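Quick illustration, no need to memorize.
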Amino acid sequence: IISATMWRLTCLSILLLIPAAVSFQSSSKKSVHITCSKFNSAITPITSKSTSLQSTVDETATDISTKTKKTWFPIRPADALSPSNDYNSLVNSAYLRHILVETEEMADLVMNLYLNGGKSEGDDNDAAQSSYERTDGDVFSRLATDVSTCPFTREDSGEIGWVDNPSNNREKSDLNDVYADILSSEAIEDLFSRRVKGGDVIKVEGKEGWHLIRVDDLFIKLMGDTDTTADGSKNRINKVRPKLKGSGQIPLSPVFQKIGTDTDIIDSNDGIDNDDEQSKMIYSVPNAKHYQILTSGCQMNVADSERIMGVLEGELGLKALDSINTADPTLITTSNKKSKNKKKPTPDILLLNTCTIRDHAEQKVYDALGPYTAMKRAGKPLAIVLAGCVAQQEGEALLRRFPEIDLVLGPQYIPWLGELLVEVGKGSQLCMTESMIWSEKGGIGAIDKDSSREKDGDWMTPIKRGHSVRAWVNVIYGCNEHCTYCVVPSVRGVEQSRSMEAILQECLQLAASGYKEVTLLGQNIDAYGRDMIPKRTFADLLHYLNDNLPPNTISRIRYVTSHPRYFSERVIDAVANLDKVCECFHMPFQAGDDEVLRGMRRGYTFDSYMKIIQKIRAKAPDASICGDVIVGFPGETEEAFQRTLDLMEEVKFDNLNTFAYSPRPNTEAANWENQIPPEVQSERLQRVQALAAKHALERSERYVGKVIEVLVEDRNPKNGGEVMGRTRQGRQVFFEGDIDELKGELVNVEITEARTWSLVGGSIQD
């Protein structure tokens, strides 16, 4: 009878299709040693694999413009940190797993197995993956159990735990001494010298052999007992606040208390100095109980607000004032439209999650703040938090203009919101907009740091979802592009990819909660993985999720937004062939004229964009194609605008988001002299919208008479007897039905009527 360990190793040898001499050496530590011969002919060195992955990222379906690209943004997020907020001052420790093998060649072999989902390169036989069958998708942990020679971590799937950064200038613990038998101090220093982030897998030489070390997450501590504002930093921490001009009031905030792991409340007033007037007043302020959040902007902002609400409720125990998330694009705030006879309840914390993509966005925010700053000047204990893109863009200037604001929160600091609000409750005023490195759960306290976790998702920032059928899942934050019209890179930071394991864990949690559809989010989603070690690709992620989501759970995967310059044929193949990935491409083209595209610094041409469309039509003929377009860009002539119409005629988009160009702060094109008059922009926008509507109706008409699978999402708000859902291609469908019975179900619907942006039909009974 063969032992379980021997069986695993035998399967691994068969999988690799190479001669293997397996020797088991008994010792007091019960270690398992593996030696393999003839590596030279069987192994692709990891350096070659990295090159291959890079070429995959660069393998696009476009002809890249030969114009020199500016190198404003580094690929690795740690390289974008400022000297006042550098890696070693931020990163206290990292949560690690590892695989220990005897030789570097074996480390390269195991790395390639991990990157290929447990298969050897070129092996398409699923049967060969019998010991790596679908579980939680964590191939690294399975490999650690099967092949690692470490006697201390092998039975725990390679889990080491929190390891301190030896270069961090905060307090030191004895964690690294505890792990001395697993990782040498030299190996730990080597690891952190590479400024790793979550999802990185690093090959490091140790005393016992070669380690493959996976970084599950980083522990980043923002606040300390002696924290002050660092010289040159965009972050500001004002621990003593002056009285407000005019009213003479000290700005007060309610006290925020973090919920402990045993659901007890941790008193956040501990340690406050009693001697000054501000501290004495804080002690008399009640605890925060209710919040209100107003959200404007794109899907990324909506997803951010869900995470913000998760922190407010899950970490601080607050309740929504209206018990719902109210999206308010215009940020109109209070009860002027309500009856004056009813006193509307006011929140203890107001959070505005803002957008700056369009003109006049800042003024809308200022108008929205007015009623709440008045409350604070009148002495009401109220925390005012300004988050999102306007917060990141304006930074400390907002505190000077509105000293009533308690916290200016850049999008990268959402995981630390609970920690920051505790400081607000102690009387501090903060601006947090400096560059930051991503952490799945950066704000964990000491009470959590010493505990262990079973999966990557266990310590994610809590999320309060806005829907029960479909959900947003962030996969990459930030943008490294240099489009001359766009403010996103300056307000969203550099690209930072989440690990594939963390993304899968979030999706598995959604699947367990009954969700049927996820939309993967990224400002430039096709750049996914290029900031990781080793580099990964978005196509890799699509395959990984499709292969590891359990049957009969999440049946649809969507994503936004692609960039034509990075788009690869592997993504087209994934959409065409993977059963869970919806046949829908969102491919912003922005303009049809090559000179305008060059001025925008988009990196492609009319012809190269059309090559992508042709490949999509050839491989996924039934897929929908959506896009974005900007009219009236500086210097756009009538002839150039006509090329935009020409491109629209060739593609015939299912849906097109249309915009007139508006100058945005900190963008190049805003300073150009050849701006287009507003009346010309308006006329061109109307022409584009009319043509887009014509094409959308044509694309809808192709469904008439067909039976289409529809995922039911909601009740028709205009007809209570109807439900609404979407096709796999994203077209909205209305038909008669009971929402209580059909919500979240896949229903076959025969389409009887085509509308410009939607379809009408009737369900087909089984």
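The radius of gyration is 28 Å.
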